[in-house]
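Running low. Invent one:
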Amino acid sequence: MFMTEAEFKAADLLKKGGVVVLPTDTIYGLTGSALSPETIERLYRLKKRNPLKPFLILISDETDLGRFGIKPRPAEKKLLASVWPGPVSVILSCGAGGFDYLHRGTRTVAFRLPEKAPLRGLLKMTGPLAAPSANPEGLPPARNVSEARAYFGDQVDFYVDGGFLTGAPSKIVKISGGKFVIIRPTDSSA
């Protein structure tokens, strides 16, 4: 898999607890290690986000769910395989101890397995990443690095330029009664 110099630098910073704005498979994300409570708190401060709203987590493959104590049943695995990899985030129960900093008392977290292979490769290097949209809460998601810099300036450790992105935030669903229930359609802002 080919990675640019910027992607290698981003991966290195993310592994060390840094915060990086990078293009995801949908829009620019404000990313940081989902396994670092300190990094997660930094993301909340940067986004000025409601501290009760959990972040979306990007994973490199379904086995990453095990890092959060999540073991999908066969029927759930089949549903996940129908939307992953792709631009669909799935809310799953995350009641394992030690993840309160992620689920914020909801005991659930939305996970997405991105469609873009280079992004999955980066995730294999960094581990799961919290990846809310690159904007302060209530403002439109950044469509390019210039807009992200206008929001965050030097408060972010690094920016990966993926050009102008016109995608929509991911659709968010949850599994209920053996099927998906839409929580947020793709045409809503993150």
In short: The mean pLDDT is 91.
